[in-house]
Specification:
The chain has about 450 residues and is an alpha/beta fold. Among the domains are: about 80 residues, no CATH class; about 120 residues, YqgF/RNase H-like domain (Nucleotidyltransferase, domain 5, 2-Layer Sandwich); about 80 residues, Beta Barrel (OB fold (Dihydrolipoamide Acetyltransferase, E2P)). It is built from 14 helices and 10 strands. A 5-stranded mixed sheet has the order 3-2-1-4-5. β4, α7 and β5 form a beta-alpha-beta unit. α4 packs parallel to α11 and α8 packs across α9. It is flat.
């Protein structure tokens, strides 16, 4: 739509709720300054709101449209990266460039190393009469010589008639054809045309296609993702934001591959790209100094370790959700509740700007930092008095451990002395529960508490 406006084909106007705005203006007119009550309501509304509102709305809509376009581009890139690698002992790859350029062909092994190569020129006269031309016969001879059953072709070519002729001839010979996008070829083939390989451009391009079929993630990661051209109306998008989002997509996919092994491809892979840019994650958070305990943030899981998950919240610093804060229930492995690329919402527990550390919690129930846990004093006070650590430090629901759930061996006598019978003074506002008589009873109490 905005492109149509720029080219003069469309006109865009906003239908604004002027009457509702005027009603709000009348209610607040007295607080707008000493001259406001005497001024005309229409002119006052124009000055305060209407003169700038359309421009702001246009800016917001432009930004949202750009983010949606970047999201779509990243989804397209994920499709390229997650393509199932071609499993073949040997394969052929053919590249078709411009009409007068030679057709390049390579025979490669499963590691992408060149076994044979050819550069042949097509005869336009034979193609115009519907024939395949002698050069296709030479390609078939090489395919037969190396006992190849899989052939990689570009999805499109400037010399489209050559591509169609080759497709028809290879299909009639019962060969399996795999189409590969011939994007960013100049950048991708540069290391192959330079020393020490010094391949011709057409042959080098064919080898790029072969390697993309064998290892999509590795080969697509070698080029600038913007050059792949996965975005519609790419020239209308902010190139910096597009590049950052596409690079993030590549890294998330590579992380998923390392996590799941070399066979984590295709629809079963659980790679989900994060939001298109940091601005969409948490628009009001610009730096780590904007964070406060208790804030809710949106983020994307970028890495998982045995002690928790690292989260991208749109800042230069990544946040950490400790394993004890990943779930309301007890978990022994972070992978039970999160996966790389997953979008999550979490609460800020603590922020340390000088050290660049952000602690988050994904628990649905948690106490507000600085408040007292249920049934007793704060964590620091409990430790000082020999009491139990609140359950929030142990992956529970945020309240303090009840005395009946505390192991007898972990609680020294309180400063006030012990009650007769070995029981400590009861916490304020509650009854006097019985201490466990044995370690096994204490562990059983803990298990029941975690099940709750």
């Amino acid at each position: 739509m905005r492109r149509g406006v720029r080219e003069g084909a469309l006109e865009m106007r906003f239908e604004l709720p002027t009457e509702a705005m005027l009603e709000q203006l009348r209610l607040r007119k007295e607080s707008l300054g000493p001259d406001a009550p005497e001024r005309d309501e229409g002119s006052l509304l124009d000055e305060l709101v209407l003169d700038n509102l359309p421009a702001w709305l246009t800016t917001i809509l432009d930004h949202e449209a750009e983010l949606s376009a970047i999201d779509a581009a990243c989804e397209s890139l994920v499709g390229l990266l997650r393509a199932t690698p071609l499993q073949a002992r040997r394969l052929a790859a053919i590249f078709i460039g411009r009409a007068k350029a030679p057709v390049g062909m390579v025979i490669a092994d499963r590691e992408g190393e060149v076994l044979a190569q050819r550069a042949l020129r097509a005869d336009p006269s034979t193609l115009s009469t519907g024939g395949a031309g002698p050069f296709v016969g030479k390609l078939l001879e090489l395919i037969t010589e190396y006992n190849v059953h899989h052939v990689v072709l570009p999805t499109n070519a400037p010399a489209s008639e050559v591509l169609v002729a080759i497709q028809n001839e290879l299909s009639s010979n019962d060969l399996q054809l795999t189409p590969i996008r011939p994007a960013a070829m100049a950048e991708a083939r540069r290391p192959l045309t330079d020393p020490p390989m010094r391949l011709g451009q057409s042959v080098a391009s064919a080898l790029v296609l072969a390697r993309r079929a064998l290892d999509p993630i590795k080969e697509w990661a070698l080029v600038d993702p913007v050059g792949i051209g996965v975005a519609e109306y790419q020239n209308d998008l902010n190139e910096g934001r597009l590049r950052a989002a596409l690079k993030e997509t590549v890294e998330l996919t590579r992380l998923e591959r390392r996590r799941g092994g070399k066979n984590s491809h295709g629809p079963s892979a659980t790679v989900t790209r994060s939001v298109a840019s940091a601005a969409r994650l948490n628009p009001l958070v610009k730096t780590i100094n904007d964070l406060r305990p208790g804030m809710t943030l949106h983020g994307v899981v970028t890495n998982i370790s045995h002690f928790g998950a690292f989260i991208n919240v749109g800042l230069a610093q990544e946040a950490l959700v400790h394993i004890s804060e990943l779930s309301d229930r007890f978990i022994s492995n972070p992978n039970e509740v999160v996966s790389i690329g997953q979008q999550i919402s979490a609460h800020v527990l603590a922020v340390d700007p000088p050290r660049g550390r952000i602690s988050l919690s994904m628990k649905s129930q948690r106490r507000v930092p600085g408040s007292l846990p249920a049934g007793g004093g704060g964590r620091r006070e409990e430790r000082a008095n020999g009491g139990a650590i609140p359950l929030s430090a142990m992956g529970g629901d945020g309240g303090g451990l009840s005395p009946s759930a505390r192991p007898a061996t972990s609680r020294p006598p309180s400063p006030g002395g012990a009650r007769p019978g070995g029981q400590d003074p009861a916490p304020s506002g509650g009854s006097t529960p019985r201490n466990p008589k044995s370690r096994s009873e204490a562990l059983a109490n803990l298990e029941r508490l975690f099940k709750k």
